[in-house]
Design goal:
single chain; Rossmann fold; two-stranded antiparallel sheet; 12% strand
Length: 507
């Protein structure tokens, strides 16, 4: 031992180790002291309520209303809410240590870089719909650094909301959802500014509801609406006014988070809300270009299903806004509380990546335009053959068909779900008349221009081979569809035609 200590190299190494330990200890000690100082600074910045403060006067008689809201007889908020409001007011005036904010956002900062976090902190995001999906999305955006958030929702927190809402408590039951979100989140991120609109989103108010806030246009819009009319109006407005938007499709009846995807609306499947939204948008001329969060989970035996709404609910008033299909009976959506949260976080994650410029995969639309062109050309040829068969000697060359490529995509994808109504095959598809017309298949809209009388409600989707046989037997022959196809196929076609008639008013 003595010989080791007398070794100059060993002594030098020991000295270096001890010195390093002392320096490291000093640095860690200094950091600990600074951290404690910052914590004390934060605590001291929180407003202290004096004896004369109204919250002290009423805190002894704070109670719950019939809805569970925490207020006193005079309608004054509870002590903690008042403290949070005062702190938030200070923070939004700039009276809040920026170093503390950066410390709270430290993990995001190292992930997104200083430049990315700066973009996020200066962003303005609008969240429309503040229920299960919207509340989790808003919470994630605020916690991640977005400093200006507009919330739009007309509804109140209910007891049944608490299984999936991000921040609501029993004390929030009966209060507006937008107010609940601000009140709870300002206790977590007091520097975030919220612009509340306690109202239903509507097409005639879209310009104001989605307009600038203090001169700043929205960097992103999040659609977390479950009302089909409002949802379609929002997405159509955003698409046509070049507002970046992401839409959450239905979380009801879903249970597998691994099946949740983000993709173009043209590719979303296995969801009635998604299908109905996509179909209405196609009817309005919007076929793609909107990113959506959706689930590919298929229904199955033993899984939750749509439940009928009790008759007594109809006696309370109009409930049509809750329906996925217009004029269809409204049904209750069973919701597993975890699934709206996953949808909401997926929306927030996408918004964060896009705003900060973090590498993010683009989601291509379902590129089948060439196929639609081919189907339209084949439909025109079919109509020309029908004219010649029904009106011998009639020159049908150059016959105009009042169906566009967009109409073809709508019929194939939305009405017939991308497959033959006869065999269910998804390739080599064609559109053809279902029944032989009783009157002339041509009309003269303009002198010298012959046009087909075919309408979308007249068409069905088959494979090319099935369509050729159908033309021969039904359109140019004498048979009716009922003589060729089984009852299930005929019933399916009639159901799809009836369904299309429900949507015709949106075209």
């Amino acid at each position: 031992m003595a010989s080791w200590l007398s070794n100059p190299k060993a002594q030098l190494a020991a000295t270096a180790i001890v010195s390093g330990a002392i320096v490291a200890g000093g640095i860690l000690g200094y950091q600990h002291v600074r951290r404690q100082e910052k914590i004390e600074d934060l605590k001291s910045s929180i407003p202290q309520l004096g004896k004369e403060h109204q919250a002290d006067k009423v805190c002894s008689n704070v109670k719950l209303t019939d809805f569970g809201a925490a207020i006193n007889d005079s309608g004054v908020l509870g002590k903690e809410d008042l403290r949070a409001i005062e702190l938030a007011e200070r923070a939004q005036r700039g009276d809040f240590d920026d170093d503390l904010i950066l410390e709270q956002l430290a993990r995001n900062r190292v992930f997104l870089t200083d430049d990315g976090l700066k973009k996020l902190r200066s962003a303005f995001v609008i969240v429309v719909g503040c229920g299960g999906v919207g509340s989790h999305c808003t919470s994630a955006l605020a916690r991640s650094g977005v400093s200006r958030i507009r919330l739009i929702d007309f509804d109140q927190v209910t007891l049944s909301s608490l299984n999936r809402h991000a921040v609501a408590t029993l004390a929030d039951v009966g209060t507006p959802k937008v107010g609940c979100l601000r009140r709870r989140l300002q206790q977590i991120t007091p520097w975030v500014r919220f612009d509340l609109k306690n109202e239903l989103f509507a097409a005639n108010a879209a310009a104001a509801q989605l307009g600038p806030w203090e001169g700043q246009k929205p960097d992103f819009v999040v659609d977390a609406i479950d009302n089909i009319d409002s949802k379609v109006a929002l997405l159509e407005y955003c698409h046509k006014n070049n507002l970046p938007v992401i839409s959450s499709m239905g979380a009801g009846c879903k249970s597998d988070p691994t099946r949740i995807l983000i993709g173009d609306i043209s590719a979303s499947t296995e969801d009635p809300l998604s299908r109905s939204t996509r179909r209405r948008l196609r009817a309005a001329g919007v076929a793609s270009g909107i990113p959506v969060v959706y689930s590919t989970e298929k229904p199955g035996e033993g899984k939750a299903q749509l439940l009928p709404l009790p008759d007594e609910e109809f006696a309370k008033g109009s409930v049509g806004d809750l329906g996925v299909l217009p004029d269809f009976r409204v049904r209750i959506l069973p919701v597993l509380g975890t699934m709206p949260a996953v949808f909401g976080y997926a929306c927030a994650n996408y918004v964060i990546l896009k705003i900060t410029g973090y590498p993010c995969e683009e989601f291509p639309a379902k590129g089948r335009e060439k196929m639609y062109d081919g189907i339209l050309a084949q439909l025109q040829s079919s109509e020309e053959k029908l004219v010649r068969a029904m009106i011998p000697g009639e020159n049908a060359q150059g016959l105009k068909v009042g169906v566009s490529v967009g109409d073809v995509g709508y019929m194939v994808e939305e009405v017939f779900r991308g497959k033959s109504v006869v065999s269910g095959i998804t390739t080599r598809l064609a559109l053809v008349r279902w029944r032989k017309p009783l009157e002339s298949p041509i009309s003269l809209e303009v002198e010298g221009q012959k046009s087909s009388t075919v309408k979308l409600k007249d068409l069905v989707c088959m494979t090319k081979e099935e369509a050729a046989m159908h033309e021969k037997e039904v359109l140019r022959g004498s048979k009716r569809p009922e003589e060729i196809y089984d009852k299930q196929t005929v019933a399916l076609v009639e159901a799809r035609i009836a369904e299309e008639l429900q949507y015709e008013k949106y075209r």
